[in-house]
Amino acid sequence: MMTEKRFVDCFWDREYCSTAGSDACFKKAKDGGQVSKQLLEYQKQRAHIEETYGKALLKLSKSILGQNEQGTLRESIDALNLMTENTGLSHLEVSAKYNEELSKLSTLTESHKQQRKKLDDVVKKHQTQKRNQYKKTMDVKKTYENKCKDLDSAVQEYETKKSTAQQKEMDKLQQKKLKCQHQCQQADEQYQTAITVLEQIRGNWEQETEIALQTLQQLEEERMTYARNSIWVHVNITSVNLLRLDALCEVVRKSLESVDVAKDIQLFINNEQTGCVKPETIAYESFCSKNNISFLERQLLSREMDENKEEEVFNDLYESVDDDFFDDYDEVAEGKGDAIQFHVIYDYTAKREDEISIRNGEILYVLEQIDTNWLKVRTEHGKTGLVPANYIEELI
Fold first, then answer.
1. DSSP code of 279?
2. Which secondary-structure segment (H or E) carries 383?
3. pLDDT tens readout for residues 133-160
4. Which backbone phi and psi does 259 adopt, to 5 degrees?
């Protein structure tokens, strides 16, 4: 079985002042914190949507729905309205549960953020100390190297000239050699001290970095586990709500299965029927005198007559009317003589070239009956054309 790798074993670097390992782990933790924020925002928005939708459904359930319906269909409409109300309440309950999970995730995310910041500050502090001490140690090392070179030069010069140089010169070379030895010894002590201090700082840095890496892995494991569980809970809440909504819908479906259209129709008839006897036909009653039968009345009679009897009826009608009436009508048709006048009772606007426009109250003279619906007339100004028969009546 392969051993699981851990942060503390895998995020180091051979370069003495490198921070690549810890930087990678802190970046991972920071990215994880960003994901937690995104999950928080998602759950916040989802809870808001559920709340808004739930309130909208409750408002809808209080509106008037099917109040004029009767019977089994009314029962189904009532069931639909009740389902709408219960669905709204269910979504509000889901919103409350989402907010509860949201609060837990928010607390965990904030706690992790504070812990990451504390770890980051500590590690950066020791990294800075190590980097500064390393630079100082390298400077001391360089000084020590130079002092060693100076000592080697002084010793070599002294050994080279001791057999040929004067005593006075040799004394100077001796003093120079002793001075270089002293300076080299001091540089060596400083170098060793810097190395010791650097090692102490490096040890502290390494210890704090190990703690940070271990803690960062623990935080990441905790964050990822909680995120997984939070999403699981979120999906379960949604799933349970869907089952509950389906149960509410099933109630409406059962109600719809019981709808009996024929029964509801009979219920309406039994409750609202007004009677079974139809009104009798209204017979025509003439209130005009024999001598004043108008042209339009003859038109109305002609529509009611059978085509085979039309000529016979009109002959009888002509015989019953004074001859003077038809004489006057013929004179009007020829544009001369006094005639019975007609007046317009409705405005009419011409729609074809052979029609004329007329206005309420205008005086007309009928020249010709085109058919049962149209008459050819002449206005007082001599203009002729077709007008609807039911737009004028005889002027008495």
1. P
2. none
3. 999 999 999 999 999 999 999 898 888 8
4. -65, 125
Burial class (CB in 10 A: 0-12, 13-18, 19+), 198: buried
Contact 365, 353 (CB under 8 A): no
Distance in angstroms (rounded) separating the CA atoms of residues 307 and 317: 16
Confidence band for 2, pLDDT divided at 50, 70 and 90: low
Angle between helices 295-304 and 310-320 (to 10 degrees): 150
Please answer whether residues 358 and 392 qualify as being in contact, where contact means their C-beta atoms are separated by less than 8 angstroms. Answer: yes
pLDDT digits (tens, 9 = 90+) for 13-25: 999 999 999 999 9
> At 46, which amino acid appears?
R
**CA distances for 263 relative to 4, 67, 79, 251, 255, angstroms:** 74, 18, 19, 21, 15
Give the model confidence (pLDDT) of 234-264 as tens digits. Answer: 999 999 999 999 999 999 999 999 999 999 9
- The greatest distance separating any two alpha carbons of the chain, rounded to the nearest whole angstrom, comes to 184
DSSP for residue 63:
S
Nearest Cα neighbor of 342 from 304, 376, 303, 302 is 376
